[in-house]
Amino acid sequence: MSSSFPQQFWTGLRNWWREQAQENGAWNATSLLARNLWAFARESTPERRRQRYGDMEYDWEERVNTSSGTVGWRTRLLGSFHSPYQPTDPALFREMMSSLPIDFGEFTFVDIGSGKGRTLLLASEYPFRKIVGVELIAELHGAAEQNIRIYKSPTQRCTQIEAICADACEFVFPQTPLLLYFFNPLPKAGLRRVLRNLEQSMERSRLPVWVVYHNPAMDRLLEASPALLRTGGTEQYSVFTGKNL
Ligand SMILES: C[S@@+](CC[C@H](N)C(=O)[O-])C[C@H]1O[C@@H](n2cnc3c(N)ncnc32)[C@H](O)[C@@H]1O
Predict the structure, then answer these.
(1) Is 183 in the pocket of ligand 1 (CB under 6 A)?
(2) Are residues 104 and 73 in the same domain?
(3) In angstroms, what is the span from residue 112 Cα to ligand 1's centroid?
């Protein structure tokens, strides 16, 4: 995204408002906007900023920059209209991967809303054929590119990693077996669009698809998809497979 911050802000606000008002009515959209801005102000206190540094351990160990503590206020404000950046906990990521009965070497891993790219680095511990991250916000995407460049680990088994700065709603899914990863990636209307694109892509390719949905607040949308079947998970995540498997 190369537009200036004020442009990104007004575009984000306008699109967000339109979707919320359509979905829930203008009154509810206004009150949600007030709640989001209040949450942004609360998250800006020094106390909350210190708390966000609680996710730093992975960065210290791997000498990368994936923490939410170092995200600037502009990006956090934009996050109020999309979804705020928060990196995945490494132990949980590994638990989610170990729950999948797949041959990683056949699959492309795609993180929808990849932020600073922590999951792209974590996924590279598995021998995926390729790893792709799609992130809307330029500051986060830039950090992901830098992380991919500097990451060095003896446990790395995939080096084909691509970070793309784009709206995930427009993302064209690669025509290979796919493992998709969602962690609060986008609001309801956006998630619906991503699912519709996925369904059309699956219709064309008929290749295996798995979806790991971390913090599955909108599980129902995936359950309602004619292309996906829920096969497992816990309270923290859900696992879906393509019905064409
Ligand atoms: C909760 S964070 C997850 C980050 C990363 N997947 C991880 O697990 O470490 C959600 C990310 O989705 C991004 N996002 C929100 N809307 C998006 C969109 N329409 N297209 C691409 N990324 C988006 C946000 O900027 C944020 O970085």
Answers:
(1) yes
(2) no
(3) 6
* 141 lies in the same domain as 187: yes
- 10-53 tens-digit pLDDT: 988 998 888 889 888 999 989 988 998 898 888 888 888 888 77
Mark which of 48, 79, 110 sits at the end of a domain. 79
Higher pLDDT, 82 or 56: 56
Q: Is ligand 1 within 6 A of the CB of residue 133?
A: no
**Which two structure tokens, joined as six digits, stand for 110?**
């795609």
What angle, 0 to 180 degrees and rounded to 10, lies between the N-to-C axes of helices 5-24 and 188-205?
Answer: 90
Residue type, 223: E
Which three-class secondary structure state does DSSP give residue 238?
Answer: strand
Residue bearing the CA closest to ligand 1, atom 10: 185
What is the distance between the alpha carbons of residues 112 and 238, in angstroms, rounded to a whole number? 15
Q: What percent of the chain has pLDDT over 90?
A: 68
Residue pair 217/86 in contact by the 8 Å Cβ criterion = no
Q: Nearest residue CA, atom 14 of ligand 1?
A: 113
Cα 101 to middle of ligand 1, angstroms: 26
Q: Which atom of ligand 1 is nearest to the CA of 181?
A: 6
pTM listed for this prediction: 0.92
Q: Which residues pair with 80 in a beta bridge?
A: none
